[in-house]
Amino acid sequence: MKNILLFVALLQVANLCAQEPGVNTSTPVQERIFGTQVYMTELLKTNPELRQSISNNEVQTFNYRYSGTPDTVTIPVVFHLVGVSAITPGDILKQLECLNNDFYTPRHPYTNETYRFALDAGALDETGKEILFLHPADQKQGFAQKAALPMIRFCLPESDPSGNPTNGIIQVASDVAAWKMDNALKSGDTGGSNPWPVTNYCNVWVAPLENGLAGYAQMPGGPELTDGIVLNSAFFARAEKAVEGYDNYALGRTLVHLMGSYLNLHELWNEMEPCGDDYVDDTPIHNAPNHGKGQYMHVSVCDGNPVEMTMNLMDSGFDSTMYMFTHGQVFRMHAQLSEGGIRHKLTQTAVICKDGENITDNNDRSINDTPKGTMALRILPNPNAGAFTIEIIPTDLDQNTVRTELYDNAGRLIWSTNSTFTPGNTLRFPFQGQRIAPGFYVVKAIAGTTVQTTQVVVR
Length: 459
Prior knowledge:
This protein is α/β, with parallel strands linked by helices. The chain is built from 8 helices and 16 strands. Strands 1, 3, 4, 5, 6, 7 and 9 form a 7-stranded mixed sheet that branches. The protein has a 4-stranded antiparallel sheet with strand order 13-12-15-16, with no helix packed on it. Strands 10-11-14 form a 3-stranded antiparallel sheet, with no helix packed on it.
């Protein structure tokens, strides 16, 4: 255009977001169509000032790529259920769980460095078992090394705009059979639901949409009155059984994709300008959206004929085949959430995050079940030019100090530092050692008897 737990036996890929029981896989395939590009094109026609806003935002995003450091953040999500009665509180929690599995949960396949850097078929993990890749391109095209974990968390708001306690779920009765892509859904005056202040809340309208449209998002910089995401209720995650005919989209990744657009990710294909760029360096150019299972290998007809990243969450395949963001995409999203970014105020709103209820790991276990005395370790960015940030996420360690060491490819210790962290908080600090030459290095974090290692690539 980021050693937790190794995924075993592909987790059937679908289990990346807790496979629902009762899914009938014999129902017809429904092709998923997103409307964000058409929506933004029409928005530009009626809001000419948006072009300058987008341009200014791109300057901020470009500068962030070179000076910013992604931080762990939380976004409050408000669900407006308009004319929808079939979506239950359990479905809401399931959809939040799916968002967090792809954006936040440290137990993501790409946090395992053995998985990321295994280059040979038949490679073994640290326990001696053969590594099974989620997709052949993870290994053969090196896509696993481009993958990154955004560390963006989604929760229900703690209070409404007036300061009253809330669960952030709004039910609005409606007899509209299917809504058009004209923003009437976003106003109570036209039978929809008024947004909560869009600088402080991420508004998601859920309703039946015309022509089977899966949904659309307003990218950063547009009018506040219409800012947010619209999601076809048929594509909403389900805790029990999928909507008939939509089995392949019951894992909640339609909203994951739209949330990426809301955070300024362009889709991997360009409907208005075929082979147009998405402004991310580490994603290949797609000539069109991929539907279905995303079989390896699909070669783009665009310049250079790159192998397409069909497992990227900004493509359009089945939910079970989409599961990664890249480093470049993560930096682009965090540019919006950083201080000075259009979406920054979202990270300042109080939220309710019920660990163990709406956030689980990719094996469908509560985060509260994470073994005590563990920690996640990652490098931002990776690869890099010798300047990077070390991030350590501790879980119930029996002490609050950690020693971090850097080794060269000959196993020599070339730098170390001791740090103190507050239990439950992420520890983040820059590498401030001597200038190091291009090559492969190992970072080791030691907290008592708990040890974690990861590889860093310097170009």
